[in-house]
Amino acid sequence: MVLAAGLGTRMRPITDTLPKPLVEIAGRTLLDRGLDALAGAGVEKAVVNVHHLGSMIAAHVAGHQKPHIVISDESARLLDSAGGVVKALPELGSHPFYILNADTFWIERGTPELERLAEKWDDGRMDILLMLANPANATGHSGGVDFLLGEDGRLARAGGDPSGLIYGGAGIIHPRIFADAKPEPHSLNLYFDRAIAAGRLFGAAMNGHWITVGTPDAIAPAEAAIQKFSAGAA
Asked: φ and ψ at 201, to 5 degrees?
C-alpha cells in the first residue's frame, strides 16, 4: 500500500494545484518512484489511497500495469495512516504487505531495499518490520530520530537518543494487527507502540541513500543527491 492521501500543506504553494505524490524530482514523480520500487520487488497489485486532489492521482496511475493500481478514495474523509490502511484491507488481503509513504524514496546500493525487507521477514516473530535510515546517509530530513535498533533487530522508541535511526517510510505489516480496527482516523504509531510492547516490532537498517521531500526547498537537495549518489533511484 502507498500512503498518498496527505494534504501536503508544507509543500505549498506547489500543492495548491498539484497533489504532493505527483511532485517531480529529477523528472520522475514521488509516486512513480515508490511504485517502481514495488514493481522491482515483484509486487503485482498496489493500493494507493487519495484525498487532496485525488482525481489527479487516479488519472496519473490509470492503466498502470506494474504494479496494477487500486485507488482507495478518502476524498470524503481523511483517515490518517492507519485508518487508510484499515479501509483498504479488503484489497490488501490476509498476507503481509508492503507499506510505503509517497513522499520518501531512496537510491539503491546493492540488493534492493524492499527485497532485503522481504528476506528478513519472520512471520513467527514479527508483526511489523520497518526500513530504517541512518541520519548520516539521508537527505532532506529535518526532524529527530525515531527508533533504536537492537542487536536482535527489535525496535524501541529512540527518545532523543542520538544513536537512533529514522523510520524510512517503508515496511512490511501483517494485517492481523488490525483485527477489530475500524476505518476511522488514527495513526500507525498506535500499532508501532503495540508491537514494541509485544516485542514484535522489528527494523532493518538500509544500505541505500534515503531521501525525503517535505517542502519546496527540499526539492533541489533531493535532485542533487540523486545526481551525486546514483544515476537511478528507487
From this structure: -100, 120
Closest CA to 183 of 103, 73, 98, 99: 73
C-alpha closest to that of 174 among 154, 153, 201, 147: 201
pTM, full prediction = 0.90
Contacts 24+ apart (CB under 8 A), 17-23: 17/53, 18/53, 18/56, 19/50, 19/52, 19/53, 19/54, 19/56, 19/57, 20/52, 20/102, 20/103, 21/57, 21/102, 21/103, 22/56, 22/57, 22/60, 23/213, 23/219
Query: Which DSSP category does 61 fall into?
Result: H
From 40-49, 75-84, 201-210, 224-233, the region with the lowest mean pLDDT: 224-233
- CA 157 → CA 51, 147, 163, distances in Å? 30, 5, 11
* pLDDT over 50 at 194, yes or no: yes
Mean pLDDT of 95-102: 95
Which cell numbers hold the place of 182?
Answer: 475500524
Residue 166 grid coordinates: 529514522
